[in-house]
């Protein structure tokens, strides 16, 4: 696995400020407080030095999508003062390993994975924050619970003693059609609202909506995103120059 270095002449503080400005403008347009939306920097394909550099520039929430990359980056990134979220497909046999390196697993996409994480957390005598991943677009290539089953799934996950459900995560429709993409995000917000109202004490903390990326964070914020996961707009293109 060859991870990429920081692109030549790249300025993370500048990139962070530009994306923060976009997020703030989207908040203003939606009548929301800018403090309601956190930027998570998705550093996939970039090396540990690049990840640490973005933390030092003020990116205090980092997301990793593979066990391999989190192995390389979690310790230096957390030592630099950032929180680490897992945002990718997590194989059950890696749960044991990943759990010690993260503050939250956003991508809980099956009950079996939730049960495994719960067992590992129990062995560690800790609790783990998780989000329930939902496939709002129904695209076959995407992980996550279908919308129709997601409320039940959230209740099952939240009932596990060592997991705390802090919200919902989705990867939006692969489309440039604003109405189509926003429909998916608004469906996730409706799900969150319903679950918080009717889900009881287990789901009282299910507040977050992790949705939106570099190309569509404005649409996600308009629909209520509390975390936008931004990769290329902050880190640069993920292809080798
Ligand atoms: C890579 C990645 C992102 C960021 O994507 P960009 O389009 O580069 O902003 C967000 N979420 C997940 C789950 C990712 O894997």
Describe it.
With 241 residues, this protein is α/β, with parallel strands linked by helices. It has one domain (12-235): TIM Barrel, CATH 3.20.20.10. It is 42% helix and 16% strand. The chain has 9 helices and 8 strands. Strands 7-6-5-4-3-2-1-8 form an 8-stranded parallel β-sheet. Helix 3 (67-79) links the parallel strand 2 (61-64) and strand 3 (83-86). Helix 2 (48-56) packs parallel to helix 3 and helix 6 (147-158) packs parallel to helix 7. It is globular. 44% of the residues are buried. The model has no long low-confidence stretch (mean pLDDT 97). The structure holds pyridoxal-5'-phosphate.
List the defining traits of the structure above.
globular; 8-stranded parallel beta sheet; 241 residues; 16% strand; binds pyridoxal-5'-phosphate; alpha/beta; 42% helix
Q: What is the residue-averaged pLDDT?
A: 97
Label the overall shape: globular
CATH fourth-tier homologous superfamily: Alanine racemase
For the report, how would you describe the main beta sheet?
8 strands, parallel
Distance between the termini: 16 Å
CATH topology: TIM Barrel
Report the radius of gyration as a whole number of Å.
Answer: 17 Å
Helicity level: 40-55%
CATH architecture: Alpha-Beta Barrel
Structural class: alpha/beta
Q: Provide the low-confidence segments as ranges.
A: none
Question: What is the topology?
Answer:
Elements: H1 12-30, E1 38-42, H2 48-56, E2 61-64, H3 67-79, E3 83-86, H4 95-98, E4 104-108, H5 111-123, E5 128-133, H6 147-158, E6 163-169, H7 178-198, E7 208-210, H8 217-222, E8 227-230, H9 232-235
Helix pairs in contact: 2-3, 6-7
This protein binds pyridoxal-5'-phosphate.
Pyridoxal-5'-phosphate binds at residues 42, 44, 65, 87-88, 171, 213-215, 229-233.
């Amino acid at each position: 696995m060859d991870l990429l270095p920081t692109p030549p002449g790249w300025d993370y503080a500048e990139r962070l400020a530009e994306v923060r400005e976009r997020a703030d403008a989207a908040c203003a347009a939606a009548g929301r407080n800018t403090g309601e939306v956190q930027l998570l920097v998705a550093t996939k394909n970039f090396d540990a030095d690049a990840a640490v550099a973005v933390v030092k520039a003020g990116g205090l929430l980092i997301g990793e999508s593979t066990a391999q990359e989190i192995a390389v980056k979690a310790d230096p990134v957390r030592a630099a003062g950032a929180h680490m979220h897992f945002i990718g497909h997590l194989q059950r046999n890696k749960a044991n390993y990943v759990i010690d390196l993260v503050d939250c697993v956003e991508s809980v996409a099956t009950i079996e994975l939730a049960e495994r994480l719960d067992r590992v957390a129990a062995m560690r005598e800790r609790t783990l924050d998780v989000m329930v991943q939902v496939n709002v677009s129904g695209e076959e290539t995407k992980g996550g619970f279908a919308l129709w089953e997601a409320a039940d799934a959230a209740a099952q996950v939240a009932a596990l003693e060592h997991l705390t459900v802090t919200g919902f995560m989705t990867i939006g429709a692969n489309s440039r059609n604003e109405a189509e993409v926003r429909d998916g995000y608004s469906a996730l917000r409706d799900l969150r609202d319903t679950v918080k109202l009717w889900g009881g004490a287990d789901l009282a903390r299910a507040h977050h909506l992790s949705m939106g990326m570099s190309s569509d964070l404005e649409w996600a914020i308009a629909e209520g995103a509390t975390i936008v996961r931004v990769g290329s707009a902050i880190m640069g293109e993920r292809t080798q120059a």
